[in-house]
Amino acid sequence: MDKVSRRTFLAGATLGSLSLNAVGLPQASGGHSEFDFVVAGAGHNSLITAAYLAKAGFSVLVLEGRPTIGGGCKTSEVCLPGFKEDLCSTVHGFIQANPVLRDNELKLFDYGLEYIDPDPIMHISFPDKASITVWQDIDRTYAEYAKHSKTDADTFRRLVAEIQAYGAASQSGADIPNSGVWRRRFAMSGYDLINATFENHYIRTFHLAVGRFGSVPAGHPNTGKQLFTAIRHQTNGRPIAKGGSGMLAVALGRVIEAHGGVIMTNKPVAQLMIENGKCRGVECVDGSQYRARKSVVSTIHIKHLLDMAPRNLWGDEFVENVRLLQPEHAMFAFHYAISEPPKYELADGSTISPAESALLPNPERVLRADYEHAKGEINVDGLPLQIVCASIADSTRAPAGHHTLKLEGNLPYALKEGPQHWDNIKEQVAADVFDYFRGFSPNLTADKVLARFIQSPLDIERMNPAMWRGSVHAAAYGSAQSGDMRPVPGWAEYRMPIPGLYQTGGCTAPGGSVTGRPGRNAASVILKDHGSSLEEAVHKSAVARVSS
Q: Domains in the chain, ordered, with CATH?
């Protein structure tokens, strides 16, 4: 097999609008393009898997159905030229602990990736102008808690130490201190644990507000980890990629390319090619076929993947478990190009403009979300919101003196009128949400909004079919559908029931969000199965091995 010539990235790649044209693909017999590994989908996890495989010296093809790679890590000028809007994720906090970044295993920082740590880290305002702000300086954050409750401030400081000890023990494999307490905490609902831990209304509300960023309501069992979301913000910050979330995908694409890999966009996969009961490649919607000498790696949502091969090959248990898999609460994302940042009014008459903030008027509001989603009803009153103005911390995202703004939260995908009804109401819903938000940031009058781009839950699914029913974490965030709640025992090993097929992405352990862990874990399993190892790939020279 001749080596594929190196291609350059389009200028738009710097915006996360990465579009690579595979030129001169080597052809195997029968007219099929053939590689060691064919990767279906180009979310950040599958790109990480592909990068390790390419770095190990295998020939790799990545097929992406959309015009740009990145999945949930995409940045584009959807409002106005020069305004770089993150279409899904913005914060890349969890992935910082992954050896992909922590140990720079893929050398992503040599390929244009850079992170910024905003300060303040997080803010919440309340209708009476009370507020809590989390700063990088823990003493300053302690003072924010103490102005509401010194007891809760002391609890906060104790929990910071506890979560640090828990993390250190988990990472080293040592015994976790008070492990029984941790198991009980995580088994509880976030709502119950937060109320059992703090006494102050504002502090309870703040922890529930940021805990629900994962789209799993705090009233569910096994959501006790939501107590520690705000604690982790204090210990880890909320890092953002300079230039936009899509820069993670851009850097991964560059690594794959540098090691001889090929990325093709506008190539949605329609079917798995099965021969003698084994997955041998994929067929795209346009009829093109790509063969894998070794294996296919999928990041397609399993609700769709199930239809790409005969049902009898999956096994009854797998099929039934996929049928029972439920979506998390659907996400909406409303994007704005604005002429000044949000300014939250504080109790002393001053204002604050953080890069990220949350809104939730009272703790009980999170419990109503399940009812509203079950009924398919829209209720903007007191809606929990996540507000991101990344341009405050990263001036490269907007023209001088201007800013990007994203309002996101959860509203039902399955409206009582049907999901398609979103096309009729999304503009009015966005207007209502913005008016609600303006009650906390009154400076953002209509004349400050230069343009907007509205993504309903239905639009989010259209943008990325892997975000099934508007679930941006692939219905597998946190512990809500982990462990025994996954489709088949042993699936956490990333091997699918059909031989020759592996799965990565948000549908696999440990779930969604930008962690990179499913991608790296899958790469480790795949490399081991094919006579290599992650360690060998990490230390391999930059010159890729090309299969003969």
A: 11-79+92-111+244-325+473-539 (3.50.50.60), 138-237 (no CATH), 329-472 (3.90.660)
